[in-house]
């Protein structure tokens, strides 16, 4: 089959179980937008300028209207902006956080600028039962609570609520929580390495409060992460509830079928 | 330290670098909501009924107003609903999709009900350059494109755009794409196992088109996944762009510090 005999993405519905003509422009625009947005997020357009509409229309064998609608979707997401006389420019920078190794934020993102923490609360409290259970503590135990707004290059990235086993957390309350990852402080303080962490990742809409703290619009998409970290070979010591701004973070993983 | 001498989550700001009184009710409500929502999502309330407000206020050493605000946040997210005379009931069911092993949706969720696919497009097209590169194909190659709306128990879960290497994808176009994972079809057709996949996970807001397809409100939080799957020990064959409804899916992983 030569390229000229191959249908374009515009025409593929004719080959499918969908009735011919049923593949609307919105579908074609979405198909194009999905590829373009990954290129934008991965920094594939090195000078930060996207190809012009006609070039993209040729590339995707699509109408200019479909391309324009795809670019509109990226613009609505805040990934690109259209500058008259220049073209479509990449405006977003998303950081990649790997899911294959347990790392703190400052460890992970140090090349992107300093990670600083605005400590919103820090102290010893009575553990809520659900938290005590997760950390293997008796009901009603004391626990150390640390709430931080985490900033990269001065801009909010995440709101982290952290519960630490009391013997692990108490010595950290006198440490520099503004400029250090808790992981680094735990390992320095205990002389032990962290081991396994279990985490869950969800996409949620920002409630008004969280949006305000993260300086994001209400309803903005956030990555909500719950992470329970254990000492190496040992007990759970650090339970975190994290909300990352979806427009600033990508998680990456390499997984096996076997 | 006895429980009575330990400050509550309401009072912890006094111990922190925040000025006393700066920890507002919205902060306390968020702290409570984060714990409760994990319990809801993990199915911790087995009969589906949350404790009453006074019990929660005691549990979190918080005011009833803070508890009410936390429950309002869960309700706004669609996780619970308040039923007069009965209390606060869990209304959401989220499926867990593991990130530690590469699995198809039907393999993963089979106990939750049948996974079916509405095939929106399927056929051979000319590969966009960015897609050809990711799959290691020459520019302008033919490629197989499959677009599916995936449903669990008859409700939309994800919209998947899939590009398959032509020799892998072409034999699948005659197969039952409605009732099978592509992974299973690829392995059956090639007689080989899949191997490694690289994936990225992001939180994004649903554009109007995707929202309509997924039967979610415009702007709803979605998990956007890009996944490139390789044959065992071999070449990349399957590139997917997936949008999961955030209110229906949780991703889980176990990661190591080492």
Plain-language structure description:
Two copies of one chain form a homodimer. The first copy, chain A, is of the alpha+beta class. Helix content of chain A is 26%, strand content 33%. Chain A has helices at residues 25-41, 53-59, 64-76, 105-109, 129-134, 166-169, 182-190, 208-214, and strands at 80-83, 87-90, 95-98, 115-126, 142-152, 155-164, 194-205, 221-231, 236-245, 249-256. Chain A has a six-stranded antiparallel β-sheet with strand order 4-5-6-9-8-7. The radius of gyration of chain A is 23 Å and the shape is elongated. At the A-B interface, helix 1, strand 4, helix 5, strand 5 and strand 7 of A face helix 1, strand 4, helix 5, strand 5 and strand 7 of B. Strand 10 of chain A pairs antiparallel with strand 7 of chain B.
């Amino acid at each position: 089959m030569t390229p000229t005999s191959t249908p374009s993405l515009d025409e593929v519905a004719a080959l499918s179980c969908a009735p011919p003509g049923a593949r609307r422009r919105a579908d074609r625009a979405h198909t194009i937008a999905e590829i373009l947005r990954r290129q934008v997020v991965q920094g594939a357009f090195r000078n930060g300028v996207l190809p012009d509409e006609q070039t993209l229309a040729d590339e995707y064998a699509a109408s200019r209207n479909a391309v324009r609608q795809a670019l509109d979707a990226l613009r609505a997401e805040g990934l690109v902006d259209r500058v008259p006389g220049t073209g479509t420019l990449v405006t977003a920078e998303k950081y990649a956080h790997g899911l294959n190794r347990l790392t703190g934020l400052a460890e992970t993102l140090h090349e992107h600028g300093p990670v600083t923490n605005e400590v919103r609360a820090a102290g010893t409290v009575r553990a809520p039962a659900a938290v005590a259970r997760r950390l293997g503590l008796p009901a009603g135990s004391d626990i150390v609570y640390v709430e931080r707004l985490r900033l990269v290059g001065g801009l909010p990235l995440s709101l982290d609520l952290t519960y630490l086993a009391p013997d692990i957390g108490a010595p950290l309350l006198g440490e520099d929580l503004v400029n250090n990852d808790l992981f680094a402080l735990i390992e320095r303080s205990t002389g032990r390495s962290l081991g396994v962490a279990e985490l869950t990742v969800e996409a949620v809409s920002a409630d008004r409060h969280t949006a305000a703290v993260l300086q994001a619009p209400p309803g903005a998409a956030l990555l909500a992460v719950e992470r329970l970290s254990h000492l190496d070979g040992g007990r759970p010591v650090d339970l975190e509830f994290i909300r990352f701004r979806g427009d600033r973070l990508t998680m990456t993983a390499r997984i096996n079928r076997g």
